[in-house]
Amino acid sequence: MTNHPSTPAVQFNKVNRYFGEVKAVDEVDLEIRDGEFFAMLGPSGSGKTTCLRMIAGFDRPTGGSIYLYGQDVSNLPPYERSVNTVFQDYALFPHMNVGDNIAYGLMVKKVPKPERKKRVDEMLDLVQLKGFDSRKPSQLSGGQRQRVALARALINHPKVLLLDEPLGALDLKLRQQMQVELKAIQQRVGITFIFVTHDQEEAITMSDRIAVFNHGKIEQIGSPSEIYEKPATTFVAGFVGTSNLIGGELAKRLTGSDQTFSIRPEKIHVSTTEKTTTIDTITLDGVVRDVVYLGLYTRYLVEADGVDIVVIEQNLKTTSMDVVSAKGQKVRLSWHKDHISRIGA
Amino acid sequence: MHSKKAPLPLTIAAFGTLLFLHVPMLIIFLYTFTPDETTYTFPLPGFTTKWFAIAWGRADLWRSLTLSLQVATIATISALILGTLAAAAVYRSNFFGRESISFLLVLPIALPGIVSGIALRTAMGGFDIPFSFWTIVIGHATFCVVVVYNNVLARFRRTSTSMIEASMDLGANSFQTFRYVVLPNIATALLAGGMLAFALSFDEVIVTTFTAGQQTTLPIWIFSQLTRPRDRPVTNVVATFVIIITFIPIFLAQRLSASSSDTEGETK
User: Fold this and answer.
1) Residues A220 and A309 grouped into a single domain
2) Confidence class of residue A342 from pLDDT cuts 50, 70 and 90?
């Protein structure tokens, strides 16, 4: 969508940010591609927001450089970067109406009034808030404020749009609706979107690629399915979805290597009959310790070789009656060997 | 909102307090119309408005009034600038001794005026600064800064910091951010603080007596009138006038800070 598609939209080169002794961001290397919907996922204090603030220019790296489409922006002030931000609390100007809020970026750049008006209307159209321009932010609902914040950030046609926990303040229903809408808007405007979230489901639903942050470092970067199916570290396996981690002797017996691996609960099958298995199947016998019937699926807790393994089985035929009688039963767990993910040290 | 009626003793006590506070002012107002210049007799022996004309014609009174207005204006303006800057510094950056600065700024209004007054006089004497119009302004600014500082700081604390970042993010430089985002947000706090500062300066006696040279501000002029019983109704006229011009800004300041705190919650 730009003239140089090979240049990354954002590039971090060994970026550090220390707050006194605390390494908020620790030697981060990162490449975000042009036109990508990129998520920075992690718990609070993992450094994801600091990275976002350094892209915006609110914070400067202690060491390393940040490039924006090839230009070193590490020490540029926010108003000299073609990046705009949607803030977590929206940060709308309470003394201005919606129209003036959206036009702010054009106003400070002294764009003539008729042009401003035209572009504000375009933006209101984009975020489906036509006719709201004379309202005050205090007269809007949370979802509407979020749309105004989005329109205000997009009106400058930034090269990169940053979103800080964009859906954090909305209720579940609205959040799901906005997830779809944000994605649609991103595809329409064709701008690189980078958003920060602690919600793994949100990151998986919306983004093209995810960087999982922990303790100021990136644990893994990959597509949502890569992150989910092949977690590279213990942290990723635990933070994104639930996972069974199997290591030591048991791992050696099952896979021939004592390297810890992760297996997602829904990849495991529970059976009471001894099915014939192929060479690609890994099997493990255990006893059901707990069963929870959850309508759509049933969650089993199976103890095998002293390890608790969580299994999720879709309720295709099972009824809640079957489930009750399952407790204490001897079962055989089986899964395809390709479904395991080896965890790095 | 409160449908229940207050108990009778409480009502009486409340009215009693209000009367106690305001009857003396009514008396002053009443005796601006007395034809008898030396004594307070009730009922009034007659009715006259001649004191207004006499007060109007007094050149010394006009001089004091002008001086007081000038001092209050300049003290308020300096307080607005210094108070805002101090509040911004204390709010935005975290520097060594921040809490102490905050405390030291508020101290002049808590200290008895007589202490501030003697301290200022000693300091000015020590530095051989001649007492003048400007020494009065400096004296007044010490406590005027506090009211502006407090008002503006409170407003800053209720304003989201990301608003300033949002402005910079959208391409505004520091000056534009101040002009279009910060100033409109603290405007009512500035107005309220400024009016309060003006009113405080306008009727200040104690610090003024220590920092003034030959100049007579209006409150000092009134004070000196005590020794001239024959001028009493003229003093009453002036007192009434002072009550009115003090009342207006205080009233407006209260209205402003009340209405802005009403809307503040909605922006969250």
Assistant:
1) no
2) confident
